[in-house]
Amino acid sequence: MNGEAGYADDELLPLSGIQHFHFCPRQWALIHVERQWADDRRTAEGHLIHERADDPFITESRGEVVVTRAVPLISRSLGLQGVADVVEYTRSADGVLLHGREGRWAVRPVEYKRGKPKPDERDEVQVCAQAICLEEQLGCVIETADLYYFEPRRRYSVALTEGLRATVVSLAQQMHALHRAGITPPATGDARRCTHCSLRDLCMPGLTRKKASVRGYIRHHVKSTIEETG
Length: 230
What we know:
The chain has one domain (about 5-230): Alpha-Beta Complex (Lambda Exonuclease, Chain A). The protein is built from eight helices and seven strands; from the N terminus they run E-H-H-H-E-E-E-E-H-E-E-H-H-H-H. The longest helix is centred in the C-terminal third of the chain and has 20 residues, at about 160-180. It has helices at about 15-25, 25-30, 40-55, 120-140, 160-180, 200-205, 205-210, 215-230, and strands spanning about 15, 60, 65-75, 80-95, 105-115, 145-150, 155-160. The protein is of the alpha/beta class. Strands 1, 2, 3, 4, 5, 6 and 7 form a seven-stranded mixed β-sheet that branches. It is globular, with a radius of gyration of 18 Å. A hairpin with a 6-residue loop joins strand 4 and strand 5.
């Protein structure tokens, strides 16, 4: 990490990986450290959904709302870069200035998801990371974001609380520590997570699963990396 300036270009990691990491650090490392991937029906459907959302040449105006698609994102503080499916700008006296638009606009990222809301925060941390990128890029504060799920075909509002933001920062730091060390952690002890994972055959969780906590394993290597880099 480059001091107060944040992460350099060659240190940036894919923002979308934070969702994988929250779900399973081993899955993330197989994809982003070992460069392995395997599509199944679910991931293929997800690609199609994002192709529909990610057309950078489409900007829609709906009265007091401007909708932009495939918005490039970068956060130097998190060391993440990626693309937001959709960013909505709503006219607001407390908002930001937009090039080519009169007035001020409040900013709201919208992330599209294939299935239903998840039992954990893996989707919330992804859209929160997107919001942090937009805050850094536009010099604004974003209090809420949206997740749109195609199975119920509805939006869910996400409050970008201090707790959620702290989780995003912690996950990003762990991702960078493992990436620098080139480490793929063992499988989690929760075998239920592996059932529908597209990387199950590549991962071989039964051979790598350990009784020790994966979070403890990561914390150990994060601490070691921080001590080594000073």
